[in-house]
Amino acid sequence: MTPEAAAKTDALIASLWSKNLPKTIERLDLLDRFAQAAAFGHLSEPDRQEATSISHKFAGSLGMYGYQRGTEIAMQLEHLFRNLPPAQPDLITPLTVQLRQSIFADTQEPKVERTQ
Fold this sequence. Notes:
It is built from 4 helices and no strands. It has helices spanning 3-39, 45-61, 68-82, 92-104. Helix 1 (3-39) runs antiparallel to helix 2 (45-61), helix 2 packs antiparallel against helix 3 (68-82) and helix 3 runs antiparallel to helix 4 (92-104). The longest helix has 37 residues, at 3-39. 22% of the residues are buried.
């Protein structure tokens, strides 16, 4: 990939990240609420399905923005929500915290990493 093409790709990814940031924050907030409900054993089936879907979407999309650790955490969350009631529901809340931290630790800009 030429430097110009790489710069255009990076700019497009940054633009997509900015455009989708409000939705990302909304989904993180929902996961927090679902994690809290799961921890107390009060997660409804529709909410469990939505939490599974949100986790799946994060698992599939965060890597594109350079958040590989976020993808790994989202995959763990997807597995836990898919298999509720989990043997260890207390794992979900710490993972939602880690997911948010993996995305917003340093900046709200995507961490695009290029391999040459």
